[in-house]
Amino acid sequence: MHTARPETFISVDVETAGPNPAEYSLLSIGACVVDDPDTGFSVELKPLSEQVVDEALAVSGLSIERLLVEGVEPAEAMRRFDEWIRLATPEGHTPVFTAFNAPFDWMFVDTYFRRFLGRNPFGHAALDIKAYYMGLAGSSWADTSMRVLSPLYLGGRHLSHNALGDARDQAELFRRMRETAHRGSD
């Protein structure tokens, strides 16, 4: 297998005010390098509106009122994230957006990067850990839930819904899956 450039997998997790970036705000971004999870990034953003789905805030524990005062302006938050990605990705490597249920996290991050920076440093693709596991294990989609995967790869612990904490847990999940894949190919 030939890869044009070495890849740096970056685990990304977001917390939001609702299910889509067209109507709801991105509230928090957490990220870490999959193979070096101590190299992390975290930012809480000022909401673009006060529109929320109460269940989304209940899951994350974030407060729209607090973020309206203390959150980082979205353009500045995305500039900081872009800068961190550049610093965390070695020269000549391609950063690969990696997430558990990547379509959800991806749509918010891509929307905000394009809206506030005019580009997405990850390009136009994302690696979904759920789909990776489905291919690795030959499982059904239903068997890619955290309820199933946490006992296999995370000792049964649940995600905290703190974006950086979850990004680090996702990184561990993906590292362990890759180890399983490499053992299977030996």
Short description:
The chain is of the alpha/beta class and 186 residues long. It has 7 helices and 5 strands; from the N terminus they run βββαααβαβααα. The longest helix has 23 residues, at 163-185.
Q: Can you describe what's shown?
A:
With 186 residues, the protein is an alpha/beta fold. The chain has one domain: Nucleotidyltransferase, domain 5 (2-Layer Sandwich). The protein has helices at 54-60, 64-70, 74-88, 102-117, 129-137, 146-153, 163-185, and strands at residues 7-16, 26-33, 36-44, 94-99, 126-128. Strand 2 (26-33) and strand 3 form a beta hairpin. The radius of gyration is 16 Å and the shape is globular. Residues 8-183 form the Exonuclease domain.
Which key phrases capture this entry?
186 residues, alpha/beta, Nucleotidyltransferase, domain 5, five-stranded mixed beta sheet, 7 helices, 46% helix, globular
Q: How are the SSEs placed, and which strands pair?
A:
Layout: E1 7-16, E2 26-33, E3 36-44, H1 54-60, H2 64-70, H3 74-88, E4 94-99, H4 102-117, E5 126-128, H5 129-137, H6 146-153, H7 163-185
Parallel strand pairs: 1-4, 4-5
Antiparallel strand pairs: 1-2, 2-3
**CATH topology annotation:** Nucleotidyltransferase, domain 5
* Low-confidence parts: none
Principal-axis shape equals globular
Q: How is the largest sheet built, in terms of strand order?
A: 3-2-1-4-5
